[in-house]
Amino acid sequence: MCDFVYKFYSNERCVTGEKDYSGYARVNEGIISFVALEKLNDATEGNSCIDYLMSDEESNNLKMADIHINKKFFSDVIKKILQFRARVFSCTKALNNPMMWGQYAHSNMGFCVAYSVEDLKKIGYFGEVKYSSEPYRMKLMPGFSDESVEAMEELIYRVCFEAITHKSSCWEPEKEYRAVYIVRDENIKHFDLNESTNMILDACHDIEPRSKSIIAAEPYIPFNCKPRALYLGAQTPKNDGEGFVGEESLLKLATKYDIPVYKMKNVSTSYDLISERYK
């Protein structure tokens, strides 16, 4: 396991009223955002193949109760749990990959921040993303439903973590690592079914069947996490400008946290970028 992982940021500002929602503003405040699946750039996030091998007795009981479980029932359940409960902080070890700088750091004009793996583990589950041509697959054996509530919850969350740390092979060049935070009761708000608020519209929400209320949780959940090193893009501008930050503000950020600064450089004999100590 690597000691540090990296997060790419655009250098664009995102100001609404008096609030700056940009990546630079979050890093400057020592904050990282854990994000709901629907806000990520992969539409297949959380897909899985969960097969439940029912016993004859379980199958007969379901038929008698007129309950029909199709082949993708448990996969749909896991995806629904993840969409509401899971928040993800995506990072990588592909610091020198020009594709990552081009795609996630505003065409090399942005910046990258190193974070400590140990710091991230204090917030949530942490693991390396596995890549394959098919979604994560698991078979639930007969008797699964006879387990204790605690054992079932543990198994469900293990399956959820596996599903959320598996991705299609087409994403493999990103060499992604993920910290996963599971939404807790203190993150959830309850609303009457007839109530309409911006919180519901902007949040991940579901129906709570027992109380017949809407439960909602913010799609972005912030946590304090100190940056450990700063990497300037090969084309990060020297000065700040209208709507973006340059080395001017980024070097002040590095001074604020007393962290080293590196500059990415293009070497004509390689397709990998290299980093050199800058300040």
Written description of the protein model:
With 279 residues, the protein is of the alpha+beta class. It is 26% helix and 33% strand. It has eight helices and 19 strands. The protein has helices at 23-28, 56-64, 73-85, 98-104, 117-121, 149-164, 198-202, 247-257; strands at 4-9, 15-16, 19-20, 31-36, 48-52, 86-92, 111-116, 125-128, 130-132, 136-140, 166-168, 176-182, 188-192, 204-208, 213-217, 220-224, 229-232, 261-266, 273-277. It has a five-stranded mixed β-sheet with strand order 1-7-17-18-19. A five-stranded antiparallel β-sheet has the order 8-12-6-4-16. A hairpin with a 2-residue loop joins strand 2 (15-16) and strand 3. The protein is elongated. 27% of the residues are buried. The model has no long low-confidence stretch (mean pLDDT 85).
Task: Give the helices and strands, then pairings.
Blueprint: E1 4-9, E2 15-16, E3 19-20, H1 23-28, E4 31-36, E5 48-52, H2 56-64, H3 73-85, E6 86-92, H4 98-104, E7 111-116, H5 117-121, E8 125-128, E9 130-132, E10 136-140, H6 149-164, E11 166-168, E12 176-182, E13 188-192, H7 198-202, E14 204-208, E15 213-217, E16 220-224, E17 229-232, H8 247-257, E18 261-266, E19 273-277
Parallel strand pairs: 5-10, 9-11, 17-18
Antiparallel strand pairs: 1-7, 2-3, 4-6, 4-16, 6-12, 7-17, 8-12, 13-15, 14-15, 18-19
